[in-house]
Design brief:
Blueprint lengths: L1 E2 L6 H17 L23 E6 L4 E6 L12 H11 L5 E3 L22 E3 H9 L4 H11 L4 H14 L22 H11 L3 H7 L3 E4 L8 E4 L17 E9 L3 E10 L2 E10 L10 H16 E7 L4 E8 L6 E6 L3 E6 L8 E4 L4 E3 L7 E9 L2 E10 L7 H11 L1 H54 L3 H8 L7
């Protein structure tokens, strides 16, 4: 099995050799300091003219330089080509290379050495497209997916770019060969790349340092080598398993270009650099690879992704009145904020703006909903959290009575009037009861005496007087 390498034209090879020698003499050192104490406000200096680095999970932009400026994407174009193939073709289909597929392949193109009559699966053609960046494979796939016309495929590319939200992208061919009307931006290229990353097959192929191709027609079995030095174990900028997928690009007009996805410790970054110098250093490494490595290391070292506000974090306080437990209650977060922030960020660095104003009245139960708190880091809004009372606050009865009297004077006068009337009624009732009691007492004292007199009178009425009886007894002989 023979090893595959790109087949540059003779003039290009000579030019690159001279540029490499010149670059080795004047290029600055790109040594990466280990444990360099990265700082979010000190991004690396880049040789590229445009760049963008984002954190995929939160969509946070960590670094950008000319990210919306128009640039030539070179072979990063092939990410869109691969995306359309993944969306519209069966990877196990077999495709035969036709003679006219190679008509547009220029002498200075990077190729996969395809020949007319070769029959490959769509999967292997994607490997020829992405690993050695084969322009020949791009036209074969474009013709196959485009219904026999690669121009129709380019129309599909532009339509798909618009659907993805690209705002300044236009394709003229499926490979990225220079054309003044073939352009994009760093931000648009990230949109396309992220869509392609949704396909495991793309990640597998674009993240492989090599890819074995079986014999195809007159071509012997061979091993394709990736043009990304970050994937090369023998390269001084090799990043091991950190690089998940990538695509290179280079033309004299575009400069060196590279787009990559990197993962570490559960975090994922996507970066793109455009317009780096063409020359390579003494190790055969171009500036785009150093730029990408330094951006990725800085992104992982200077930033962190996680909960910047956790459940129970104190995010403010609320004034409380009429409480025997104090005059404030802490507002504790009842929801969280997940964000990407500089690695040394603490909650003290955040700007917390509550939705409430003024005070609340005791009693306050623990967990009582207080409102929302807007959370910002500098001018960047991170989100909002809900907040509740961190503890309960009891009501002070004396304070409540004093407050009520102070704030309800009319009601107080009415109550006082009612109290006076009630008091007078009570006094009147007491006087009547006392009067009746005295009368009853007098009656109870007089009754025995009256009864004695009554009995005496009654007795006197019933008993005849003694003298009357005697006189009547002395006249025995009188008859009537």
């Amino acid at each position: 099995m023979k090893r595959f390498s790109r087949r540059p034209g003779a003039l290009l090879a000579i030019a690159l050799m001279l540029a490499s020698l010149l670059g080795a003499a004047i290029a600055p050192s790109h040594a990466l300091a280990e444990d360099a104490g990265y700082s979010a406000d000190q991004p690396p200096a880049l040789s590229s003219t445009r760049a963008l680095l984002i954190e995929r999970e939160t969509g946070t932009t960590l670094y950008e330089m000319g990210a919306d400026e128009r640039a030539y994407p070179a072979s990063i174009t092939k990410v869109m080509t691969a995306l359309l193939v993944l969306e519209n073709a069966d990877l196990d289909d077999e495709v035969t290379v036709e003679e006219h597929d190679l008509d547009e392949v220029t002498w200075d193109s990077s190729v996969a050495d395809l020949m007319a009559g070769d029959t490959l699966t769509v999967r292997d053609l994607l490997a020829c497209l992405l690993v050695p960046s084969g322009n020949d494979a791009s036209y074969v796939l474009a013709r196959y997916v485009g219904g026999g016309d690669w121009h129709a495929f380019v129309d599909m590319m532009n339509q798909r770019a618009a659907e993805l939200g690209c705002t300044d992208t236009h394709f003229v061919n499926p490979c990225g060969l220079h054309d003044d009307n073939h352009y994009s931006t760093a931000r648009d290229l990230v949109l396309i790349f992220e869509e392609a990353l949704k396909y495991p097959e793309f990640v597998e192929i674009a993240g492989s340092s090599t890819w074995d191709i079986p014999q195809t027609g007159e071509n012997e079995a061979r091993t394709l080598e990736n043009t990304d030095t970050l994937l090369d174990p023998e390269s001084p900028v090799y990043m091991g398993d950190t690089i998940v997928a990538s695509k290179t690009g280079s033309t004299y007009d575009a400069g060196r270009c590279l787009i990559s996805e990197a993962q570490r410790d559960g975090r994922t970054l996507v970066g793109v650099v455009l317009g780096a110098p063409m020359e390579e250093d003494a190790d055969g490494v171009a500036g785009s690879f150093y730029d990408m490595r330094e951006l990725i290391e800085w992104g992982f070292g200077a930033w962190r992704t996680g909960e910047v506000v956790r459940l129970g974090d104190v995010v403010g306080s609320v004034d409380v009145t009429l409480s025997s437990d104090g005059d404030k209650v802490d507002a504790a977060a009842t929801t969280t904020i997940f964000a990407t922030v500089p690695a040394d960020t603490t909650i003290d660095d955040l700007t917390l703006t509550p939705s409430w104003s003024g005070s609340i009245q005791a009693p306050v139960s623990e967990g009582r909903e207080l409102g929302e708190v807007s959370v910002a880091l500098g001018e960047r809004q991170l989100g909002t959290v809900s907040a509740g009372a961190a503890e309960g606050m009891s009501l002070s009865i004396p304070a409540f009575v004093d407050w009520w009297i102070t704030n309800n004077p009319t009601s107080v006068m009415a109550i006082l009037a009612v109290c006076v009337v009630a008091l007078l009624v009570v006094i009147g009732l007491v006087a009547v009861l006392r009067f009746r009691a005295r009368r009853r007492s007098r009656r109870q004292v007089a009754t025995p005496q009256r009864r004695a007199v009554a009995r005496s009178v009654e007795a006197s009425r019933l008993r005849p007087p003694a003298q009357s009886r005697g006189k009547r007894g002395g006249g025995h002989g009188r008859h009537l």
